[in-house]
Each structure stands twice: as structure tokens, then as C-alpha cells.
Design a protein that fits this description.
By secondary structure, the chain is α/β, with parallel strands linked by helices.
Length: 276
Amino acid sequence: MNQSYFYLDMHTHELEVPYSGEGRRIRVLLPKNYEQDVERSYPVSYFHDGQNVLYSKEAFSGYSWKVIPTIKRNPDIDRMIVVAIDNDGENRMNEYSAWKFQGGLIPGISFGGKGIEYAEFVMEVVKPFIDEHYRTKPQREYTAMIGSSLGGNITQFMGLAYQDRIGCLGVFSSANFLHQEAFNRYIERMPMEAPQQIYIYVGTQEDDEADKSLIGGNIKQAYVSSSIRYFKDLIRMGHNVDNLELVIQTDAEHNEIAWSEQLGDCFRFLSRFWYD
């Protein structure tokens, strides 16, 4: 078991997004003694919605994922490098959706379709930059992708599209029901290339005004049903159930408070086979 440690150093970079030509803030948290343990390399956990990951003062909801306190309170979690990739604000819904959403309850509403390009940015720009400038373990089994809500959607998509390079997924409160039919078609024709460790979380009270403006029906049930469908599809693909963790949390709502409470368990599950 690791002794108690915490992140002492944070580096900030701005990387150009190929499809927009604009810079994107990427922050890198390094574990204690990174500069001293020069022979040691580390797994990497990549987070979408980087503004919501580190500090509550900049988080959308006013409450962050509490990544640093989580690791400080859980010294048994393996040391890792954490990479927080900022979202693009008003273009977030476009980037985190691999497919177009059109229609819904409001005539003319449309978003999505930039997810494939965003995924390429993460895997062809961000990850190579991190692997080049930091002492990482670049192999797929030491590479985790974590996201919530639409960030969970793009995490699911990337976990399929980049199976050869991503070995661990943390899918929190995915709003995949917004693109359920398109995702179903995609996963149904996708062969399993190699085992992955996949942590799936959803609460039973997940809905908000944004969801209600897009689709009708029981949105709380839609979140739960979509997560269960994803879990079953992964098994159908050939994933061993021992490599999957499905958590359905009673009364949990759709926010960073709920996600932060599960983050320690997520880290612990994804890192089960990480070795020094």
C-alpha cells in the first residue's frame, strides 16, 4: 500500500485544437516526489470537463470533483498523473457528442457531431504531448478516460473507438439516451479487441432542466436504463463481468457532489491491475 501522498505540482499547458485553431487549457497534476523519483513512470487518468475537476470556485455547479482531496484521503489508491482537459464552454455539447441530436421538444434545437474530432484531439494531440513531456506509462492498460454526463457519452464512445489505446473507463451519469439509437448501432457492430476495466455509475434521481428541454418521458429512468443497457452490451461484446463495475446509487442527483463521492471507488477499481 502506498503511504499517504498528495499532489504538490500542477502544470498548465495550452494546446491547439486542430479543428478550431484555438488553444485549449490542459492541466497536469503530478504526484508527490515526481521530481525526485526520476526512475518511476506513472499511469495517467484523463478527465473531460477540466474546469469541474479541480477547484470548486471554477466548477460549473460551484462544486468540483474534489480530485486532490479524494487522493489525499485514500492513500491506497495507486499514484498516477491526472490530466484535466477543459471543455469548450458553449461548444461543449457539440464536442462531447459523436452524433447529431436534432428535434426533441424544442423545434430547431440541434447539437453534437464534433465528438469524433474531439476524440482525435485528445488521442492525437493531448495524449502524445503528455507522454512526451512527462514520465508516463503510455500503454493502454495504464490509460484511463473519465467523464460525466455528456462527458460520460464521449468517454463511452472513445472507449470503443480507441480500444487499442484506452484500457480503463470511468463513465459517470452518462446522458447516452440522447443518442441511444446511434450508439446502439455503433456498439453492436464493434468487436472487442482487448479487455478493459470499466466503472459505470448512475444515480436514481438524475434529471435537470436541460434534459427536460430535450426529451420527454421519465428522464430519471432514462439515465438508469441507458447505463444498464451499456453494461449489458459490454458483456455481450465479450467483456468479463469481473472487469465491469455498475453502481446505481439510490437518491443520487446529477451533480459533482454525487460524482466526487464515488471517485475514490472508481480510481480504486480502474487501478486494480496497475503495478509499479
